[in-house]
Amino acid sequence: MAENYYQEELLICGGKQLVGEIELSASKNAALPLLAAVLLTDSPLAIENLPELRDVHSMCEVLRHYGVAISPAGSTFTFAADKLLCSCPPAPLMRSFRAGSLLLGPLLARCGYAELPLPGGCAIGRRPLDLHFSALQALGAQIEVAEESIVARADGLSGAQIRLGYPSVGATENVLLAAVLARGETVLENAAREPEVVFLAECLRAMGAEIEGAGESRIRICGVERLDGGTFRLPPDRIEAGTWACAAAACGGELLLRDYAAAENAELWRILQQMGAEVRQQPRGLTIAARRRLQAAEVTTGPYPAFPTDLQAPLMAAAATAVGLSRIRETVFENRYHHAAQLQRLGAVIGVEEELAVVVGMPLKGAVLQAQDLRGAAALLIGALAAQGESRLGGLMHLRRGYEQPEQKLVRLGADIRRILPIKDENNYRNRQILML
C-alpha cells in the first residue's frame, strides 16, 4: 500500500570496501514454484523460511484469491488449499510478476480449469509462454490465449512424450506441476537442469510424486492419484550469493557467504577467479576476496550449468571497474541490457550490439540512476557502490522483487547507504523527504 504514496530511492556514497559476512535469504526462484505446488494437495504444506520479497507477496495474494488459507507461525508459513476457488485473479496483481504462469500446471491438474491474466515481470525480452502451452497441450490441455488472458481446460491430463524446444526453467516446472497428477507416464526431454528444478522435484517426491532424472536433461514422471502436504525449507538464494560476490569483487574487500557451498555457481566462481578475485570454500561458507583491481573477462550466458543470465547484469557492473576489455554475450534473453545505459551514467564505457556487450573498465563516478528490471537494479547498486562519490538509485520496486533487505545487509559490510522516501501528502500540497539511516 505504501508504494501508492512514495517512491523509495537509495542514497549511496561509494568507494568503500565491503568486509564481513552475509547470511543469504532463501531462494526466490525455488520459493515461487513451491508456492504453486500448494495447489496440488488438499493437505497442509508448510514452508519454514519464506523470504520477504515482492514476488513472494504477490504469489501469496494470488493463492489467497484461489481460497488458500495462509497461517504464519514465526518464520513458518502453512498453506491449506483444501477448498479451491477456480476464478480469475485480478489482472494488476498477476502483471506485477512473472511466476504466475506456474499456476497453469497445478490448476489444470487439480481443477481441470485455469483462467489467468497474462503475467508480467521484468521487461527483458519476449519470454514467450509457447513452450509452456505446447507442453501442457501434449498432456491434454486445451489453451486459448486472448489479448489479455489465458484460459486452459482439461478433462483429465494424461502422460505424454514431450521435448522442449529450449530448456526453459518455467516450462520444465510447469510440466512437473501438471504431470505429477496426470494419468500414466510423462517423459520430458531437453528439460532445464537448474538447481531450483531439482529442489521442486525433491519436494514433489516428498509429497508422494514419482519423479526420476531431475537435474538431467531427461525427466520421467509417473502420475499418482493424490499428493500429501509436507514441511519444506528453501535453499539459499544462489543468485543473491552471486550478486554480493560481484559486489565484493567490484568494490574490493572480503566477503563470507555464510553456510553457502560453491557448487551451484561454479561458472561464476571460475570467471571471478580469472578476473583476479579469490574464491575459497571454508567450513563456515564461501569467501570472496578482491585485493586488487579486477581484470577483464569473456562471459557467455546460457542454461545451467552455463553462466546464469540472472547474474549477467551484476557481473557487467563488476566488469565496468576492471582493467581491459570484457565481452559479455547474452544468449538467453534478447533485451537484457537496459542496465548498460544506466551504468554509462557512472562513466562506464559499454557498447551493445544485439547479444554482445563490450565493456571497457574505467573508474566510476557517482550519478543519478533509475532501475528498470530486477537484476539490472542489482547491477546499478553494485556500480554505485564501486563508484567514487554520491549516487541516487531509484526504481527500487524492482530490487525488492528479488532481494531481501539489501541495503541493511550491505551497510553491515561497511557500505554507506541511506533510504530516501519522497512522500506526497494526501492533499497534494507539497512533497517532503524523510531520510532513513
Task: Provide structural commentary.
The chain is 30% helix and 27% strand. Mean pLDDT is 92; it is low at 1-6, 121-127 and 425-432. It is globular, with a radius of gyration of 22 Å. The protein folds into 2 domains: 2-25 and 236-436, Alpha-beta prism (UDP-n-acetylglucosamine1-carboxyvinyl-transferase, Chain), CATH 3.65.10.10; 28-232, UDP-n-acetylglucosamine1-carboxyvinyl-transferase, Chain (Alpha-beta prism), CATH 3.65.10. It contains 14 helices and 24 strands. It has a 5-stranded mixed sheet. It is α+β, with helices and mostly antiparallel strands. It has helices at 28-37, 54-65, 91-94, 104-110, 130-138, 169-179, 195-206, 238-251, 266-274, 312-319, 338-345, 374-386, 396-402, 406-411, and strands at 9-14, 18-23, 45-47, 69-73, 76-80, 113-117, 142-145, 149-153, 161-163, 185-189, 210-212, 218-222, 230-232, 253-258, 278-282, 285-290, 298-300, 325-329, 349-353, 356-360, 368-370, 389-394, 416-424, 431-436.
